[in-house]
Specification:
Helix content: 40-55%
Distance between the termini: 57 Å
Structural class: alpha+beta
Shape: globular
CATH architecture of the largest domain: Roll
Number of strands: 6
Strand order of the largest sheet: 2-1-6-5-4-3
Order of helices and strands: HHHHEEHEEEE
């Protein structure tokens, strides 16, 4: 099935699109997409996620930036969206360093599909701002570009216990 964007690309590439021309243009289009969005392998995703966990444990905003593209979008579902390294760094300095201590992180599952990575982990920390122990199960949905994460959407459930 050819979708609208693919059909437009085929028409622009071949001109008067015959059935055969459309098929070849479509194959070329899909090759361009494949090359542009090189699929991330499980091992690559796992390595980036291990760095994510390490950055959280060490509360290191510079380390976390090494796994994101400069224009990445970091979307914690309960906070405003963060665009680019400067905003991601600001979020980490204020949220992770400014409000958390005694952090634990355990990566549970990793799934990859082309340029998407889905990860599940458990985390625990002390929320020093609210004086709570926080336990969370989290799902992160990442998109990838050039061997790094270009976006992250986080979804989580927490259990909070007063200290």
């Amino acid at each position: 099935m050819i979708v609208a964007g693919e059909w437009d690309f085929a028409r622009k590439t071949v001109g008067d699109v015959s059935a055969v021309g459309a098929v070849y243009a479509l194959k070329f289009y899909k090759l361009l997409i494949y090359v542009k969005l090189k699929p991330m392998k499980y091992e690559e995703a796992k390595k980036l996620l291990d760095i994510y966990g390490e950055a959280w444990l060490k509360q290191d905003p510079e380390l976390i930036l090494t796994i994101f593209t400069p224009d990445a979008v970091y979307d914690d579902s309960k906070e405003p969206e963060n665009h680019g390294h400067n905003e991601i760094r600001y979020y980490w300095v204020n949220k992770v360093i400014g409000e958390q201590k005694d952090i634990k992180f355990k990566l549970l599952n990793v799934w990859t599909d082309r340029n998407e990575v889905i990860a599940e982990w458990d985390a625990e920390f002390v929320d020093i701002k609210r004086n709570l122990r926080v336990q969370m199960r989290e799902i992160g949905i990442f998109t990838t570009k050039d061997g790094k994460f270009s976006s992250l959407r986080e979804y989580y459930k927490t259990t909070k216990t007063p200290l």
